[in-house]
Design brief:
mainly alpha; about 120 residues; extended; 6 helices; two-stranded antiparallel sheet; binds zinc ion; 2 strands; single chain
C-alpha cells in the first residue's frame, strides 16, 4: 500500500514544486487508515465523490511552491488511480458490502417518539 508521502512525490513530479505542496491532500485521502488499517479504508474517500470532497475541503486549486495552480480534483484522481488503477464510484464500493439485518432495521422506537409528539403544538418563541 503506497504511503501518502509517495503519492505526494508523484504529484511533485507531475505538476512541479515539492511533495510538501501536495501532502495535505494525500494525507486526507489516506486519513481513513485511522479507522481501518487495511485496504478497505479506501472505501471512505477513494472514489469519484471523494475527489469532489477533497475539492470542497481544499479549494478548487492549490498553488504549489513554483506558483502553479493545480486542480485539487486532479491531485485526488492521481492518488486514486495510483492505488486502484481507476476511479471507482461509491456505488462500486457499496456493491461489495454484504447486507446484514441490522443495516436495514427500522427505528421503531424513534418512530414511536415522533408519533407521540406529532399531535402536540410547537411552542412559539
Ligand atoms: Zn490511498
Amino acid at each position: 500500500m503506497a504511503h501518502s508521502y509517495h503519492h505526494a512525490i508523484s504529484s511533485a513530479r507531475k505538476w512541479g514544486g515539492t511533495p510538501d505542496d501536495y501532502q495535505a491532500v494525500h494525507d486526507w485521502l489516506d486519513g481513513s487508515k485511522l479507522i481501518l488499517a487495511d485496504f478497505r479504508h479506501r472505501a471512505l474517500r477513494h472514489h469519484a465523490e471523494g475527489c469532489f470532497a477533497a475539492e470542497a475541503l481544499f479549494g478548487t486549486t492549490i498553488v504549489n511552491s513554483t506558483g502553479r495552480a493545480v486542480p485539487v480534483r486532479l491531485i485526488a484522481e492521481q492518488h486514486i488511480v495510483e492505488d486502484l488503477g481507476r476511479i471507482p464510484s461509491f456505488a462500486d464500493w457499496a456493491r461489495c458490502i454484504r447486507p446484514e439485518p441490522w443495516m436495514g432495521r427500522v427505528g421503531q422506537r424513534l418512530d414511536g417518539i415522533a408519533a407521540e409528539h406529532a399531535h402536540k403544538e410547537i411552542p412559539k418563541a
